[in-house]
């Protein structure tokens, strides 16, 4: 699946991933390939990304919104 993380300053991440964990406002959640469509608010915390080549990356955010549809995740983050 494809992940794009956009901040007001720059595009923080763009690429193929196998798993992403988010800090949701009601608790953390994970999105895997073929997840049902979802829109959710995010709170301050770390996004954990597992890339297609099995590398783990972390990105700290202060909040934002995530949308998942058709195996494409778009995150608008602070």
Structural write-up:
Helix content is 0%, strand content 71%. It has one domain: ATP Synthase, domain 1 (Sandwich). Strands 1, 2, 3, 4, 5, 6, 7 and 8 form an eight-stranded mixed beta sheet that branches. With 78 residues, the protein is an all-beta fold. Strand 2 and strand 3 form a beta hairpin.
Summarize this entry quickly.
The chain has 78 residues and is mainly beta.
Order of helices and strands: EEEEEEEE
CATH level-four homologous superfamily name = F0F1 ATP synthase delta/epsilon subunit, N-terminal
Number of domains as seen in the coordinates: 1
Number of strands: 8
Specify the structural class. Answer: mainly beta
Which CATH first-tier class would you pick?
Answer: Mainly Beta
The coarse overall form would be globular
Integer average pLDDT: 96
β-strand amount? over 45%
Alpha-carbon Rg, integer: 11 Å
Share in helix: under 10%
Please report the number of helical segments.
0
Largest sheet features: 8 strands, mixed
Spans of at least 5 consecutive residues with low confidence: none
CATH architecture: Sandwich
CATH domain topology: ATP Synthase, domain 1
The CA-CA distance between the termini, in Å, is 23 Å
